[in-house]
Amino acid sequence: MHRGQVSSPAGVDPETWREQIRHQARQDKIRVITRRDGTRAFAALNPSVADKRAGELMQRALARGLELQRLAQTARELGHKPIGWLRSDDEYVSVCSSCGARIYARVGAKTVDDGEALTDPCP
Ligand SMILES: [Zn+2]
To answer: From ligand 1's centre to the CA of 105, what distance in Å?
Structure first.
């Protein structure tokens, strides 16, 4: 892994992750390059970008990916089989492919999560 580059966490849909990074980069008005390699995605800064802002962007993107991964893991521990995340702005939704239980997450300064897939076992 090169300096200034981050990869999508294992278990997180690479396309969802790339979209998060791109969206965040647009909001921050900085340029990133993302690429896909098999089941992982990578993002690197445009070399002209100042290191500090870049580092913050990468940290946030990474934190979001890890947060979504954590929520999916919680659901899996209850027996659910969550599909990949659907995104609308800062809100993410996933559902269990066997019982339809949902997971909601709103990511931002503070992550808010909800949904029966996080509290009730898969029947
Ligand atoms: Zn389920």
So the answer is: 17
**Full residue range of the structural domain in which residue 85 is found:** 5-118
68 CA to middle of ligand 1, Å?
17
pTM of full prediction above 0.70: no
Helix (H, G, I), strand (E, B) or coil at 32: strand
**Span from the CA of 85 to the centroid of ligand 1 (angstroms):** 15
Q: Give 39-93 pLDDT, tens digit per residue.
A: 888 887 766 656 667 777 778 888 888 889 899 999 999 999 999 888 888 889 9
Q: Which residues of 66-86 are buried (b: 16+ CB within 10 A; e: fewer)?
A: ebbbebbebbeeeebebebbe
Q: Residue 123 domain-assigned?
A: no
Residue 18 located in a structural domain: yes
* Pairing status of strand 40-45 against strand 32-37: antiparallel
Number of domains within the chain: 1
1 band by pLDDT with thresholds 50, 70 and 90: very low
